[in-house]
Design a protein that fits this description.
Low-confidence stretches: 40-45
CATH class of the largest domain: Mainly Beta
Structural class: alpha+beta
Mean pLDDT: 81
CATH topology of the largest domain: Jelly Rolls
Order of helices and strands: HEHEEEEEHEE
Number of helices: 3
Helix content: 25-40%
Strand order of the largest sheet: 1-8-3-6
Distance between the termini: 72 Å
């Protein structure tokens, strides 16, 4: 009988230790979840996708070489804009643009052009609405890209003429904290 009581006490002790281990394990899980909930917004805030949409009217399009248009303001010291995608929507007017000496829509960080373009030919020289998009890439010195606004400009040797349509430009970007 005493042996049976000792065995039951041992089993009870093992069961109690098992329950305490499970409680500790559950507490760790709860702690990990709480930390994730607390940290996640800070991590997402640095990498969340943002967008900006700017409509370029005919006067802006006809002077885009001389007067580039700002799409996104400079993000501040120690930061740079990481352009993810550009979408252009041409809304045809009564007459199409004359592209003439070529040139494309070029994205730039300040004065540093990025390897991102929307072709003007086959786009703004058309009589109907068109959509064009491009996935970009950028390369340059940190000092030329840090704290620069995202601009769009005409890369051709002359301004585009004659048209009266508009282009809606939507950009998707993130803001990067430089180290």
């Amino acid at each position: 009988m005493q042996e049976s009581t000792t065995k039951k006490n041992e089993e009870k002790g093992t069961l109690i230790r098992f329950r305490k281990m499970r409680e500790k394990s559950n507490m760790r899980k709860v702690l990990v979840v709480l930390m994730a909930v607390w940290l996640a917004p800070a991590l997402v805030a640095q990498t969340s996708m943002q967008s900006a949409t700017v409509t370029l009217n005919s006067a802006q399009l006809q002077h885009l070489k001389a007067a580039p248009v700002q799409l996104v303001a400079a993000p501040g010291s120690g930061k740079l804009l990481n352009l993810v995608s550009v979408v252009g929507q041409y809304k045809a007017g009564a007459s199409a643009y004359t592209v003439g000496n070529g040139g494309d829509f070029i994205a730039a960080l300040g004065n540093a052009p990025l390897n991102i373009r929307l072709n003007a030919a086959g786009f703004i020289d058309q009589a109907s609405n068109h959509v064009q998009f491009n996935s970009p890439s950028g390369l340059g010195s940190q000092s030329s890209m840090e704290n620069q606004p995202l601009m769009i400009l005409n890369s051709g040797s002359a301004e585009w003429t004659d048209g009266d349509g508009s282009v809606i430009v939507t950009v998707y970007y993130t803001v990067v904290d430089l180290q």
